[in-house]
């Protein structure tokens, strides 16, 4: 019965809202080439705009509480690593380097980070401090989150959720496309927490992040030590926020190790050029509310 209900809900998405198959990214050497399905009534522009407003509000709140540390040494460290990773995004999505990328760091003992729609990155100091992250490990976290952004996983997640929202609205035909999009966005966006992506999404973000890390000259093998640290901290009691949506297990580490031969040549090539390279500074800054 549950299966039939799900099929019915997804059918309503196609009939009432319209659904299009898209390729948001190029496969890269890691081979992420799944066709995604996005609801037509939720344009990326609308979602990105809504998230940008929510993001700016979260940043202003952190600033008012004295917790915004983007301009501190730890903040500059996060931005410097992010810049190098964003330089590499054209390998997966041409033009994404020109998104309105923003990076902010909040001083809270929370093990979490995310990259929202349109390139809005948020990192908590608890992630860096409690895991004692190296630059390579921090790059892995950021690359993973950027991978979610490049793949439009948030929009895809909301599109899937739309099946249940639309089915619930079948008794009323007053919801127009724009109204539907706003309703879904308002119910789904939670800046700083994450959307709880599927395991499939997590695998894709892992692989894309791994390649971005290697292309940027960071050691992709740090992905293994990162997730080993994540597993250790989860066993210590109290599930960190990051792990509630990013499970660390043997299968994950196994997949990363299996992908390593594909990305290590990129890392070696980047390492040879790293000393001569002066990365262009993209517009990664404190926030966009000024």
UniProtKB/TrEMBL annotation:
It comes from the Bacteria. Keywords: Hydrolase, Metal-binding, Metalloprotease, Protease, Zinc. Belongs to the peptidase M48 family. Pfam families: Peptidase_M48. Its cofactor is Zn(2+). Binds 1 zinc ion per subunit. GO terms for molecular function: metal ion binding; metalloendopeptidase activity. Transmembrane segments: none annotated. This is M48 family peptidase. Gene3D superfamilies: Metalloproteases ('zincins'), catalytic domain. The keyword Metal-binding applies. One of its GO terms (cellular component) is membrane. CDD domains: M48C_Oma1_like.
């Amino acid at each position: 019965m549950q299966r039939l209900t799900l099929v019915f809900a997804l059918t309503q998405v196609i009939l009432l809202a319209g659904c299009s198959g898209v390729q948001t990214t190029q496969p890269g050497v890691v081979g992420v080439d799944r066709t995604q399905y996005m609801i037509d009534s939720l344009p990326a522009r609308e979602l990105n705009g809504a998230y940008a407003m929510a993001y700016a509000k979260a940043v202003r709140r952190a600033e008012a509480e004295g917790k915004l540390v983007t301009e501190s040494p730890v903040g500059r460290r996060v931005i410097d690593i992010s810049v190098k990773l964003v330089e590499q995004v054209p390998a997966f999505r041409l033009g994404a380097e020109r998104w309105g990328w923003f990076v902010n760091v909040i001083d809270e003992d929370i093990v979490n980070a995310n990259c929202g729609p349109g390139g809005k990155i948020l990192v908590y100091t608890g992630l860096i401090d409690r895991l004692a992250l190296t630059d390579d490990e921090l790059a892995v976290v950021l690359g993973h989150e950027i991978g979610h952004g490049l793949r439009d996983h948030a929009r895809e997640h909301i599109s899937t959720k739309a099946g249940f929202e639309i089915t619930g609205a079948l008794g009323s035909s007053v919801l127009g496309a724009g109204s539907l999009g706003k309703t879904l966005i308002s119910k789904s966006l939670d800046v700083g927490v994450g959307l709880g992506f599927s395991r499939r999404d997590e695998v894709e973000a892992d692989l894309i992040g791994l390649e971005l890390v290697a292309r940027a000259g960071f050691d992709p093998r740090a992905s293994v030590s990162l997730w080993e640290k994540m597993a250790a901290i989860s066993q210590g009691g109290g599930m960190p926020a990051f792990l509630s949506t990013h499970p660390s297990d043997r299968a994950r580490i196994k997949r990363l190790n299996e992908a390593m031969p594909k990305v290590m040549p990129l890392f070696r090539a980047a390492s040879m050029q790293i000393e001569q390279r002066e990365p262009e500074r993209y517009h990664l800054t404190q926030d966009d509310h000024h």
